[in-house]
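Regression test attached.
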Amino acid sequence: MVSETTATMTEPVIQMENLNVYYGSTLAVRDVNINIPYNQVMAFIGPSGCGKSTVLRCLNRMNDLIPSARVEGKVTYHGRDIYSSDVDAVDLRRRVGMVFQKPNPFPKSIYENIAFGARINGYQGDMDELVEDSLRKAAIWDEVKDQLKKSGLALSGGQQQRLCIARAIALQPDVILMDEPCSALDPISTLRVEELINQLKDQYTIVIVTHNMQQASRVSDYTAFFNAEATEQGGKQGFLVECDTTKTIFNNPREKSTQEYVSGRFG
Amino acid sequence: MNADSNLSQVADALWKPNRGLNNFVQRAVVITFAMFALISIATTFGIVASLVFETFEFFTAVPIWRFLTDRQWTPLFTNAQYGIFVLLSGTFLTSLIAIVVAVPLGLFSAICLSEYASPNLRRWLKPALELLAGVPSVVFGYFALLLVTPFLRSMFPQIAGFNALSAGLVLGISITPLIASLSEDAIYAVPDSLRQGCYALGTTRRETITGVVLPAALSGIVASCILAISRAVGETMIVALAAGQNPTMTLNPFVPIMTMTAYIVQVSLGDTPAGSLAYKSIFAVGTSLFLLTLILNVFSFWFVRRFQEKYE
């Protein structure tokens, strides 16, 4: 896997081609085409109901867990179609990690929160080393190194979220998906997580969904703007408006709706 | 400013709430409800008081060390012996068999219902399981005596017509819905965000259940098992009908035994005169039973308090 990664460094890590997502018979998001470049931060922004989280969850097949969800089109990871029958979603999720909106540490010790996933995935190296390394990379080691046996639930919200990031890092993924990782955090914790994202992009490709446009402009290199339109059935249908460098999206977007959204006129 | 204060005076004069009757009803309701609540508390105290009183009388006639060390339980014989461990062994044996049956059955049903069953299947399975909880225990008793015992004897001819095995097995089936239902509640209460977080680490469904869901629901599952044990210990009809009425100090499940509850039934239905020592002995047995279930409940309460996880 490592050699393959370096060989395709200039290629996008994840490519979405004509991606449509259905819930039951309702088309929730249509026609998404995005290339996610290697070791960069890509932000998904847009008003609620535009399907940005739905698209994010397609990238590690978390949508498989919703019985009614169905995906059309193509999503490739290092060139392989992740929805083809020979790809194991469990294996894919080890390589494409995820951090959720609300911190969700397991009711286990801090140490076990990190070691659990690694052990289940048959990690053969030194577990203590992996735990320390992951906690260091998630910038939480200094705060928890003396209390590794304490429950992960005893930490503050911001610490819990960094623990969850460490938990994802411990599996040595190359992509980390973040679904509004700061929306449940206070401003200071948010700042720490943003700093962390900036450090992590040297080693990982990061895709972050955010409601907060300032956050997108602060942490991301590329931004995809999604919008939603009302359907005849009274629901909402999301679609990709445009995807470009964050600079372009915020300063000189192609579409008028993007301009209006990033300048705060709706959303 | 002046106009304003005038207005507020005028407005005040318009608002005259008539709550005299309301306040009276309010107080009457509180008192009525408090009395209803008191009835159950008073009943509990009444039971404990009568138990303690008669038990005390029993122990003035029979020293407690005999109660704890006699090797036989024969209060109705002329040469009476009062070894409570004889009855305890019967209760222990049937409850043990019951719990060995009920914990795996109940727990697997709970896991199946909450983690594997489709919403449609769940809609049918859960009421079906709860229907089992509604079967009267006397029906279970005859089921054990007339169906399970003959079946067991067809396989192992050495089994007696009344035996602890048959009673224990059916007792286990009768407490399965309790474990299944309470464990299912505990598993259902595990936040979905934990499951999602676990799947996102690259785990299969089985790994998610054994690695995260069950440990997170552990306190509730253990509490349900302890509650089921105290139900098994206190269950009367099944063991009185199917396990025999033969006080024996044994852990052999193939022979007739007698549980604490079965003894109480035997004496209270028989022609033992009230006030006799044999009559008082059922209160001593009752107190032992009460203490046993009390200890179990206190332990369960402590365990839940100690291991329950608080999620936001």
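Expected vs. actual: identical. Strands of chain A lie at 14-23, 26-36, 41-45, 69-77, 80-81, 96-99, 175-179, 205-209, 222-230, 236-245.
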